[in-house]
Design goal:
259 residues, Nucleotidyltransferase, domain 5, alpha/beta, 11 strands, 6-stranded mixed β-sheet, 5-stranded mixed β-sheet, single chain
Length: 259
């Protein structure tokens, strides 16, 4: 049994895997003040609530250095082997970019998952704090992509920068033309994300010159992607599935005994 952890700037996604299947998925706030002791206690509580045993090992992708240190401490406290996926990891991914070590671990996990699950040229649209567009060849070459503000980032900034506009969530409005401030914000927030995804994917496909599968993942993928004409599939667990695939390369040989 395996625990995967995708530490993002806003949320951390934890996946409990038996083989390649995520049996349980939890989304937690990525609180940079959290200590290793707190993470260990929280993890024990999550597992106990589902009557799950301790995992045999932990595989982590992180874009938050402070939480990497805390998770390392939690792994030691729980006596669990823990390894991080990054640009230097021994995984079958070629990072064909200017600075391979700068590629986010989540994008490497997406590349692993896309290459193994689909086996064709793929654009992965990952909707998080940032929206990333990953260009991945059929044989697992990461060619780069695009980084744009995430679905909620622009709305959060708009609320902070204005005196009278409220905070709103990303959700589909009843109609495009809003008749009050809230509905105008809902429409603008939602369709700027939808049309932004379609526009960027169109430009990627035109420049790449390939018939690519477009897969959406991330916390808001189920909300936004069904309304994007360019998205072919929605796979909210793609990144943690990539971490589960990375497990066999980060822990080669017989798997560590499960707890």
């Amino acid at each position: 049994m395996l625990l995967t952890v995708d530490i993002g700037n806003t949320e951390s996604v934890l996946g409990w895997f038996e083989g390649r299947t995520p049996v349980h998925v939890w989304r937690l706030a990525s609180d940079r003040r959290r200590t290793g002791d707190e993470i260990a206690l929280q993890l024990r509580g999550l597992l106990a609530a589902q009557d799950l045993p301790s995992p045999g090992r932990i595989v982590v992708a992180s874009v938050v250095p402070a939480l990497q240190r805390a998770w390392l401490a939690a792994g030691r406290m729980l006596d669990l082997p823990l390894r991080f996926l990054d640009g230097a990891s021994p995984v079958p991914v070629h990072l064909e970019v200017d600075h391979p070590l700068e590629v986010g671990a989540d994008r490497i996990a997406n590349t692993l998952a896309a290459a193994e699950l689909y086996g064709r040229d793929t654009v992965v649209v990952d909707l998080g704090t940032a929206t990333t567009f990953d260009c991945i060849t059929a044989d697992g070459v990461f060619l780069g992509g695009v980084i744009a503000p995430g679905p909620t980032t622009g709305l959060d900034q708009l609320a902070r920068a204005t005196a009278r506009l409220p905070q709103v969530e990303v959700e589909r409005p009843g109609q495009v033309i809003g008749r009050n401030t809230l509905d105008c914000l809902l429409s603008g927030g939602f369709y700027s994300v939808v049309d932004g995804i379609d526009g960027i994917v169109d430009r990627i496909v035109e420049e790449w010159g390939r018939e690519a599968l477009v897969v959406a993942t991330g916390g808001l993928a189920r909300v936004v992607a069904p309304h994007c004409r360019t998205v072919d599939r929605v796979e909210p667990a793609l990144t943690i599935t990539g971490l589960a695939i990375a497990d066999r390369y980060l822990f080669p040989g017989p798997a560590p005994a499960d707890g």
